[in-house]
Design goal:
Blueprint: E1 28-31, E2 33-34, E3 53-54, H1 57-78, H2 86-94, H3 101-113, E4 117-121, H4 130-143, E5 149-154, H5 156-159, H6 164-173, E6 177-183, H7 187-192, H8 199-211, E7 215-220, H9 230-244, E8 248-251, H10 261-267, H11 276-288, E9 296-298, E10 311-312, H12 317-328, H13 332-343, H14 356-369, H15 376-385
Parallel strand pairs: 1-4, 4-5, 5-6, 6-7, 7-8, 8-9
Antiparallel strand pairs: 2-3, 9-10
Length: 388
């Protein structure tokens, strides 16, 4: 009996997913897959209740064509000048069918940002057939030869199954950087938060990316092991990173909004969340144990206590550790001021405590809401939930 014909998905227009890394703020977002194929991580609020699916490569190319057409129109509007009149933009947009306006706004924002980088969405774009990914990458480069960087999220489980020669061909076709959520190098922590990965699979995947010559960003999450596994989390994560030697180590401090599975464990007392002080102790332990690698540390997220915690290993390691030790050695009241000021968006570095005007604003907020060194972490937990 003949097999039934597979239903062909109809192209319904340009798509964009919900998230991208902070480092891709000025990138064009091209959606290759929808949502997350794993979607079980207990700390993650994104994609819950959403079905994962692959977009046909031809649909992705149609999205690229749509952006290309709008970029051409914007170039014509500029007439070679550096600015485009708002009236011309509004007129062009008003004449578009409603289902094409999202693509135009994406093109307009990218054009204004300089058109240098592209981020392939959603959570695990490399899960598609390798040849489809290579075709998409080549098509992007063909349409926009001035692109400097193309990046994507990927899961370690997926990368570890891609052939080395396919990763090398993706590199040749234009894939410059892969973002992987390592989160932890501890198998106990990875099992606790249902990451769907092991320390060994993280190391294997990371080493494959490095071997292929593709830049690698590994994300780590201080506090993810809670109080019970804090030390193990720090030491095992450092060990995994030492074996991978990624280009970037990006810090994402744990927050627990009410809509994630980990919140149930937290509310029931099965998971004890670290205070800011304890999380910084853990981060210091991790930094102390990073050895023999040349990674760049990046603290590029509002959830992190220190925006200034950035540098290149090994030369900047003493400076970064000194920042953490300075905070840990502060009097409780001063630590509280910095914690609250940072989470209010008033502070970005410890030296902001030397600004009398900013400190007065934080002091007033603490008085208004009854924040003290004893309850600061509870109040801050609520503030952090708003940024998820």
């Amino acid at each position: 009996m003949a097999a039934k014909n597979k239903k062909v998905e109809e192209y319904k227009g340009f798509e964009q997913g919900p998230i991208r890394p902070p480092s891709e703020a000025y990138s064009l977002l091209i959606r290759v897959t929808r949502n997350c194929p794993w979607n079980k991580c207990k700390f993650c609020p994104v994609y819950k209740g959403e079905k994962f699916s692959l977009r046909p490569a031809e649909h992705v190319k149609k999205d690229i064509d749509a952006i290309h057409g709008h970029i051409q129109a914007l170039r014509e509007m500029s007439g070679g000048a550096s600015r485009i009149s708002r009236d011309d933009i509004d007129l062009y947009n008003s004449n578009l069918p409603s289902n094409e306006r999202q693509a135009f706004m994406a093109a307009l924002n990218w054009y204004a940002a300089g058109m240098e980088s592209v981020f392939l969405q959603d959570a695990n774009s490399l899960i598609i057939k390798s040849q489809d990914m290579i075709d998409i990458l080549r098509y992007l480069r063909e349409k926009f030869p001035g692109i400097v960087r193309i990046t994507s999220y990927a899961r370690s489980h997926t990368v570890s199954r891609i052939k080395d020669e396919d990763l090398a061909e993706m590199k040749s076709a234009g894939l410059n950087r892969i973002h992987i959520g390592l989160e932890s190098g501890s198998d106990e922590v990875l099992d606790l938060i249902r990451k769907g990965a092991t320390k060994a699979s993280h190391i294997k995947a990371g080493q494959k990316v490095v071997r292929a010559g593709i830049e690698l960003s590994e994300y780590i999450m201080p506090g993810l092991g809670g109080k019970a596994l804090s030390r193990t989390h720090a030491l095992e994560t450092a060990d995994a990173l030492n074996q991978i030697n990624p280009d970037f180590i990006r810090i994402r401090t744990l927050a627990i909004p009410g809509n994630v599975p980990l919140a149930e464990d937290y509310e029931a007392g099965r998971f004890e969340k670290l205070t800011d002080y304890e999380a910084i102790q853990e981060l210091l332990l991790l930094l102390e144990n990073l050895d023999g690698i040349q990674s760049k540390i990046r603290s590029d997220h509002i959830l992190n206590l220190f925006q200034e915690l950035e540098g290149k290993l090994p030369e900047d390691k003493p400076k970064m550790m000194e920042t953490l030790r300075t905070f840990l050695n502060m009097p409780p009241h001063q630590r509280m001021l910095y914690q609250v000021g940072r989470r209010l968006g008033l502070f970005s570095r410890l030296t902001d405590l030397d600004n009398p005007g900013l400190c007065r604003q934080v002091e007033e907020t603490c008085r208004q809401y009854g924040i003290t060194p004893d309850n600061a972490d509870a109040v801050i937990n609520d503030l952090m939930k708003r940024f998820i």
